Amino acid sequence: MGVVQILCGAVLIVLAVVITVLILLQNSKKTGLTGVVGGGSDTFAAKNKLGMKDKKLSKITTIVTIVFAVVALVSYLII
Predict the structure, then answer these.
(1) How many CB atoms lie within 10 A of CB 30?
(2) Terminal CA-to-CA distance of the chain, rounded, Å?
(3) 71 near 12, Cβ under 8 Å?
(4) Which of 2, 6, 41, 64 counts the highest number of beta carbons within 10 A?
(5) Which residues have a Cβ under 8 Å from the Cβ of 52 and sit 6 or more positions away?
(6) Cα–Cα distance between 26 and 39 in angstroms, integer?
(7) DSSP letter at 26?
(8) Phi-psi bin for 29: left (phi > 0), alpha (psi -120 to 50), beta?
(9) Entry pTM
């Protein structure tokens, strides 16, 4: 195994862990009966602040996932 293969493998492992953590940090969308019964007492300010956090996490997750896919493709083409 060459240095590039080891480096690509290590980067893929780190990116996979980062993607997993980012997905777990995101709030789940409350849909269905659970969302109707469980939540409804949030203020507008709390929802807006939470929405900004979710948007940032979603954008970061998308970027990291794209980088993961590019590194995986480059790794495949090199090997």
Answers:
(1) 13
(2) 9
(3) yes
(4) 64
(5) none
(6) 17
(7) S
(8) beta
(9) 0.71
